Amino acid sequence: QKEVEQNSGPLSVPEGAIASLNCTYSDRVSQSFFWYRQYSGKSPELIMSIYSNGDKEDGRFTAQLNKASQYVSLLIRDSQPSDSATYLCAVIGGSQGNLIFGKGTKLSVKP
Amino acid sequence: GAVVSQHPSWVICKSGTSVKIECRSLDFQATTMFWYRQFPKQSLMLMATSNEGSKATYEQGVEKDKFLINHASLTLSTLTVTSAHPEDSSFYICSAPRGAAQETQYFGPGTRLLVL
C-alpha cells in the first residue's frame, strides 16, 4: 500500500515567519509530487508541483524534493493569515494515475 | 479561473433517494476523471476512476452498484449515489488531469452531500 505521511499539526507560526511543511512517501519509484492547499469546506487548490530533486520556487512558496530520502517539503515565506489552511501533499502513485494524498497539515498563521 | 466545475455544490436529501453529481472540465477534454470522497478531518480518498468510452474503475471497498459513474462525453462525468443513506454524507470532489503529460490534476469545487 503506497502511503504519504504528513504531520497533522496544527502548525502555528506568526505572521511574517517561514512555515515549513514536510511530507514523506513510501513508493521509491514515484516521480511526480504536488502540494495542494485546502481551505475549510473547500476543495484542494494546486500550489506547487515538483518532479526533480532540488528546490523549485514560485513567489513565496518553495518546494523541495529529495528522492533519495523520499522527502518533499514546502516552505512558505512571509506567512500571511490568509495562508491559514490545510496543506495536502500528494503523489501520483495509484494504479489509475490518481493522486495519493497525505492526511494534511493544518497551518495557522497568527497576526 | 476554474477549470473544473461541479454541480450541485450542496445537496440535502432524505434517506433512500438518489443523488446525481455532475463534473465538467472547462475548455479542455478529459478522457479520465477521478472521483474522491472526503469525510470530516480526513484526507481525500479515491472512490473511482471515470473513463470516457468505457466502464469506470472502482477502488476496493467502493460499491459500484451504489455509486454509478457515467462518463458521458469528453467534458462530463456524473456520479450517482443510489439509495443514499446517512453514512454516505460526505464531501464529494472530482478532478481531471490536464497538460501534456496529464499529470496535473485540477479539482472541482466539490459537492457536499447530507443525507437525513
Q: What would you say about this model in short?
A:
Chain A is built from no helices and 11 strands. With 111 residues, chain A is an all-beta fold.
Spell out the blueprint of helices and strands.
The complex is a heterodimer of chains A (111) and B (116).
Chain A: E1 4-6, E2 11-14, E3 19-25, E4 33-38, E5 45-50, E6 54-58, E7 61-66, E8 71-76, E9 85-92, E10 99-101, E11 105-110
Parallel strand pairs in A: 2-11
Antiparallel strand pairs in A: 1-3, 3-8, 4-5, 4-9, 6-7, 7-8, 9-10, 9-11
Chain B: E1 4-7, E2 10-13, E3 19-25, E4 32-38, E5 45-51, E6 57-58, E7 67-73, E8 76-81, E9 90-98, E10 104-107, E11 111-115
Parallel strand pairs in B: 2-11
Antiparallel strand pairs in B: 1-3, 3-8, 4-5, 4-9, 5-6, 7-8, 9-10, 9-11
Question: What does the model show?
Answer:
The complex is a heterodimer of chains A (111) and B (116). Chain A has strands at 4-6, 11-14, 19-25, 33-38, 45-50, 54-58, 61-66, 71-76, 85-92, 99-101, 105-110. In chain A, the strands form two sheets. In chain A, strands 2, 4, 5, 9, 10 and 11 form a six-stranded mixed beta sheet that branches. Chain A has a five-stranded antiparallel beta sheet with strand order 1-3-8-7-6, with no helix packed on it. Chain A is built from no helices and eleven strands. The radius of gyration of chain A is 13 Å and the shape is globular. Chain A is mostly beta strands and 111 residues long. Chain A is 0% helix and 54% strand. The mean pLDDT of chain A is 93. Chain B has strands spanning 4-7, 10-13, 19-25, 32-38, 45-51, 57-58, 67-73, 76-81, 90-98, 104-107, 111-115. In chain B, the strands form two sheets. In chain B, strands 2, 4, 5, 6, 9, 10 and 11 form a seven-stranded mixed beta sheet that branches. Chain B has a four-stranded antiparallel beta sheet with strand order 1-3-8-7, with no helix packed on it. The A-B interface holds A 32, 34, 36, 41-46, 49, 88, 92, 94, 96-104 and B 32, 34, 42-46, 49, 57, 91, 93, 95, 97, 102-110, 112.
